[in-house]
Amino acid sequence: MQAVVLAGGFGTRLAPLTYTRPKPLLPILNKPMMQHLVEALPPHTQVILATNYKTQMIEEHFRQMGRPILVNEEPRPLGTGGATKFAEDYIDGTFLVLNSDILSSLNFRRFIQFHRDNKALATISLWPVENVQEFGVADVQPDGRITSFVEKPRREDAPSNLINAGAYCLEPEVLDYIPPDKMVSMEQEIFPKIIGEGRRFYGYPLEGFWIDVGRPASYLKANLTLMKRRDVSQVVGTGSRISGQLHQACVGRDCMVAEEAQVSSSVLYDRVTVEEGARLDICIVGEGCTVGSHARLSNVVVGDGETIDDDAHLENTAVWTRPRPEGYPDRQIGNPVKEQG
Ligand code: GDD
Ligand code: MG
């Protein structure tokens, strides 16, 4: 079976971290989020990576891991539907399509069996949330059949609280619904069309945990949730020297946290130095950064390679002092959340 992993897009909501690396390679407990996904797939699944941003970095990572992956780079971003269509030549039967920015406990074997038992054309995983306006929302009948789907509705227009959890099991015939070589949204265009034609479209409510890792707060939550599930309050990569205090913190490789420094509810990437007496709370600090002595950072995202001055006080901000990389958009493209009103 093939799994098309949707790994394109700039990940603008996670900038500046995504200025220097693609979203699927952002680490969760020191392992790229996409690797968590690939490792959860049934054995022998052929992974087709649908990318368009920093492809080589992703390819290189999996090459180094010794996990054969087929890289299918789009000539330009084709959207979630267009990218799936672009993988058509590799599909030889029932297949999976997976958002790469999700961390979940989806049991793929049961998910695929549910799809087969229902003789569905398409099955999507579902998860209940409060903030429905940020997702695709499904109207689900008691037997699991989905009778309407609306992407990022206004809150009052949402048909339920069950959202698209970003994993699909599809029959190859779904590809016939997607026009080739075009920007196409699976969620805005293809799902409503399949449902509108009365085809068998099902929803599979997943159990356990589900985290959308698309924003800094949820990215941090993903790290903290996995720590909690593993019953640890800190994770420290090899070669790191910790003299200060860590509380609910994930520290990458070859970092240094000096005496009397405190790092809580935060993630430090590789080669980060936190100097004496600095305090970090709810922060993500990119690779190779230095946080000066006695600095205070609260709810701050620091891009790779930045230096925070001694005694700096920063709150609710992102740090990036160099120009935005060429070609990187200044806001989310694709399916942004509608203005509420
Ligand atoms: N190859 C490729 N090409 N991948 C893309 C493209 C593209 O042009 N655009 C987006 N992707 C990938 C992203 O990397 C991500 O893994 C996935 O497609 C979904 O795109 P996002 O931009 O993250 O969408 P979203 O988070 O706003 O909404 C999606 O996910 C929600 C669950 O987290 C939708 O599928 C919603 O319906 C869903 O509820
Ligand atoms: Mg997303």
Q: What secondary-structure arrangement, pairings included, does this model have?
A:
Elements: E1 2-6, E2 27-28, E3 31-32, H1 33-40, E4 46-51, H2 55-65, E5 70-73, H3 79-86, E6 95-99, E7 102-104, H4 108-117, E8 122-128, E9 136-140, E10 146-151, E11 162-170, H5 186-196, E12 201-205, E13 210-212, H6 216-229, E14 234-236, E15 241-242, E16 245-251, E17 256-257, E18 262-268, E19 273-274, E20 279-285, E21 290-291, E22 296-302, E23 307-308, E24 313-319
Parallel strand pairs: 1-4, 1-6, 4-5, 8-12, 14-16, 15-17, 16-18, 17-19, 18-20, 19-21, 20-22, 21-23, 22-24
Antiparallel strand pairs: 2-3, 6-11, 7-13, 8-11, 9-10
The structure holds guanosine-5'-diphosphate-alpha-D-mannose and magnesium ion (MG).
Guanosine-5'-diphosphate-alpha-D-mannose (GDD) binds at residues 6-9, 23, 50-52, 74, 77-80, 83, 99-102, 135-136, 151, 163-164, 166, 187, 212, 214, 334-335.
Could you explain the architecture of this structure?
- The chain is α/β, with parallel strands linked by helices and 341 residues long.
- It folds into two domains: 2-212, Spore Coat Polysaccharide Biosynthesis Protein SpsA, Chain A (Alpha-Beta Complex), CATH 3.90.550; 216-319, 3 Solenoid (UDP N-Acetylglucosamine Acyltransferase, domain 1).
- It contains six helices and 24 strands.
- It has helices at residues 33-40, 55-65, 79-86, 108-117, 186-196, 216-229, and strands spanning 2-6, 27-28, 31-32, 46-51, 70-73, 95-99, 102-104, 122-128, 136-140, 146-151, 162-170, 201-205, 210-212, 234-236, 241-242, 245-251, 256-257, 262-268, 273-274, 279-285, 290-291, 296-302, 307-308, 313-319.
- The strands form six sheets. It has a seven-stranded mixed beta sheet, with helices on both faces. Strands 14-16-18-20-22-24 form a six-stranded parallel beta sheet, covered by helices on one side. A five-stranded parallel beta sheet has the order 15-17-19-21-23, with no helix packed on it.
- Strand 2 (27-28) and strand 3 form a beta hairpin.
- Helix 3 crosses helix 5 (186-196).
- The longest helix is centred in the middle third of the chain and has 14 residues, at 216-229.
- The chain is elongated.
- The termini are far apart.
- The mean pLDDT is 94.
- Residues 6-9, 23, 50-52, 74, 77-80, 83, 99-102, 135-136, 151, 163-164, 166, 187, 212, 214, 334-335 line the site of guanosine-5'-diphosphate-alpha-D-mannose (GDD).
